[in-house]
Amino acid sequence: MIEFKGLTKVYESGDQPVRALDGIDLKINEGEIFGVIGFSGAGKSSLIRCVNWLEKPTNGSVIVNGKDLTQLAPKQIRDVKRNIGMIFQHFNLLNSKTVFANVAMPLKLAKVPKSEIRERVTELLEFVGLADKADYYPDQLSGGQKQRIGIARALATKPSILLCDEATSALDPETTNSILQLLRKVNKEYNITVLIITHEMTVIREICDRVAVIEGGKIIEEGSVFQVFSEPTTNTARNFVSTVMNDTLPESIKKIVRNNAGFQKVFRISFVGESAGQPLLSKITKKFDVESNVLFGNITELQGVPFGNLVVEFIGSERDINRALLYINQEKVAIKEVEANAG
Ligand SMILES: Nc1ncnc2c1ncn2[C@@H]1O[C@H](COP(=O)(O)OP(=O)(O)OP(=O)(O)O)[C@@H](O)[C@H]1O
Ligand SMILES: [Mg+2]
User: What pairs with residue 86 in β-bridges?
Assistant: First the structure.
């Protein structure tokens, strides 16, 4: 469990003080995958670095597994830190050491006996799928493989928390996906709480349970991934959601709607959950004398549940269309007419 209470961080190093974090209140539950998303400079790295004491808060507190770090002596802080692993955007591996030695490093520092180190590193390399690369050097690995090594190293001391600072930002989409799946496996199999900071909404969509949006050092929105995706309340959150769920009508479709105003009825149907799996449109065509024509759509999956919206033209008599609408409403599917001048 990680909790921030009134967390403020002011950097005094430059000409002018920078208020990177400004009164953060946030709670990350044990066992969840929590994402913090924000634009560059929002304060993401500052926030995550306060968890493992790479940065010291100016004000407020950081509570890790029930212990307020701001109240601990250096030795106690070291104990808490041993319980926290971290991975980085640029992997931060030592190029002069082999993969084995990189993963073994935290264990060596903790003075774990050699035989135990060998056993643990072997197990970890197997876990991340790179058992055959133990004697390679980081330069001989791809970015995705380097991050796998980064993950193995972060898990070496059996932490209960894994911090990920833009861990997939240097990777292509496919590799990103495989790393995210590995992080999910870390979370599920070892029951490790994962805190991810990112500027990519795809990362949030793929694996997070809950998400917070950070801007100007403040949390401006927070909720389950489903909540924030389906009903973002701030412009920033809406912008992030639109990067993966583009739901503004393309100009070409708007034109069709405008040109044919009065002849057709165009609706936006929002699918949430199970309803998206139903062959709703074909049912309507069968049940009523209404033809449907999908003009535009965007359906994705959030935490294993289908989610999205379709812009559909219904062709038929007003009476039949109204009956179809009534039916759709009963199915608990949100439907709204798209106006000719709609956005
Ligand atoms: N060591 C430092 N000294 C002075 N200012 C800093 C320091 N580290 C960060 N800042 C400033 O604090 C603010 C937040 O920085 P931070 O690195 O937390 O942002 P971020 O959200 O991680 O950005 P990015 O997505 O670019 O990594 C920025 O204005 C940054 O310039
Ligand atoms: Mg950063």
Answer: 163
Long-range contacts formed by 333-336: CB under 8 A, 24+ apart: 333/269, 333/270, 333/271, 333/272, 333/275, 333/280, 334/269, 334/270, 334/272, 335/267, 335/268, 335/269, 335/270, 336/267, 336/268, 336/270
pLDDT in tens, 281-325: 888 888 998 988 888 888 888 877 778 888 888 888 889 999 999
* Rounded distance between C-alpha atoms, residue 91 and residue 170, angstroms: 9
Residue with CA at minimum distance from ligand 1 atom 31: 41
Task: Enumerate the β-bridge partners of residue 37.
Answer: 198, 213
How remote is the C-alpha of 301 from its chain's centroid?
Answer: 13
Q: Token pair 């980081």 is at which residue?
A: 138
Q: How many CA atoms lie within 13 A of 215 on its CB side?
A: 10
Neighbours of ion ligand 2 (CB under 5 A): 44-45
Give the global pTM. 0.87
What tokens were used for 335? Answer: 């439907």
Q: What is the mean pLDDT of residues 38-65?
A: 96
Select from 218, 199, 221 the least CA-distant residue to 210: 221
Q: How many CA atoms lie within 13 A of 247 on its CB side?
A: 23
Query: Ligand 1 centroid to 41 CA: how many Å?
Result: 5
How remote is the CA of residue 132 from the centroid of ligand 1, in Å?
38
Which residue has tokens 């289908």? 306
Which uninterrupted H or E stretch holds 25?
Answer: strand 18-28
DSSP assignment of 238-286, as one string? Answer: HHHHHHHS--SPPHHHHHHHHHTBTTBEEEEEEEEGGGGGS-HHHHHHH
pLDDT confidence band for 278 (50 / 70 / 90): low
**Is the pLDDT score of 101 beyond 90?**
yes
Which ligand is located closest to the Cα atom of residue 46? Answer: 1
Q: DSSP secondary-structure letter at 147?
A: H
The residue written with tokens 């066992």 in the block is: 31
Quick one: which ligand is closest to 213's CA?
A: 1
